[in-house]
Protein: NADPH2 dehydrogenase
Organism: Magnetospirillum fulvum
Amino acid sequence: MSQPILFQPLSLRGLTLSNRVGVAPMCQYSARDGQAQDWHVQHYGALAASGPGMVTIEATGVVPEGRISAYCLGLYDEASEAAMTRLVASLKHVGTSAVAIQLAHAGRKAAAMRSWDGGGPAPDGWPTLSASDLAFGPGWPAPKAATADDLDRVTEGFVQAAQRALRAGIDAIELHSAHGYLLHQFLSPLTNRRTDRYGGSLDNRMRFPLEVVAALRQAWPADKPLGIRISATDWAEGGWDIDEAVIYAQAFRDAGIDYVCVSTGGLVPDAKVPVGPGYQRPFARRIRAETGLVTRAVGLIASGLDAEATLQDGDADLIAIGRGFLDDPRWTWRAAEALGVELATPPQYIAARPRFWPGA
Ligand code: FNR
């Protein structure tokens, strides 16, 4: 039997992923002043130990006010860079996974509470900005509509964060353009009511996100991959949809993006999302077919068999697993077992994997 696609390597520029399993970015709300703590070292280390091809570090603010919460990671000063450097070094020590980081600005969804505190606007938050001055929902403060100077500062934040990521030893950047955060707020007609060159037509709504892509591509070395995460639909009347997402994907492909992770939703609180097994796969399939981009599928892909079927069906080239990895940090082992693949095991854990003992 030929090797399952899930365990075949894949190259992105100068980076070769040992397999197609990725840990999806997942906020831990456990940073202090943007700095990674011991929690991050042990959490990401445990996930890396079972050998996924890539671990993506959670949404990381490129400026302090762009963090989703006061407990989110940042990469905007010397202290946060030093903490990130320590985290990345620990991951490289544990395993062979490529380490990506999701660079983000939360826009009007910044200054929130931790999810386990309720996730709404934090009582001790800070002023936010967005494409337009429309609040996320009832009880949320209205953001400021970004000026040209604000946009320059955000773009410069992405560039400097990329430079810090490079010094920290990160292998790939994943730009957060999904889930109703700042770039998505520019893309969607529901949140972008601007009348300047950043609002109105699709070309105008894509302008700021594509400016960030171009700036990052220039700041990030040519031999290192730059990925992006998008929401392919708002699941809301009058919102951003898959037809616009395809055009956006063609544009960022031409601007040098190497892979796209296809998610959905997050823009408005009252979206009607038909959640179910593999519910975002059709969006990945269409983006992949119409752009030729290396495409990652995500969202309720439960098992290694489901992941392999997603790849066999031509819906995607890579798979990201979120909650499955929180539930079982050895998700990659389980997938390998189900697909009859023998994975290298850290020697410290080989007693748990007698099948993989040398000579067994
Ligand atoms: C997430 N998700 C998420 N997405 C993202 O782009 N950046 C992030 O930082 C986070 N943070 C986050 C935290 C937690 C605790 C969860 C559960 C999820 C979404 C995540 O990456 C993924 O897309 C979804 O969880 C769907 O995949 P699963 O969990 O069904 O495999």
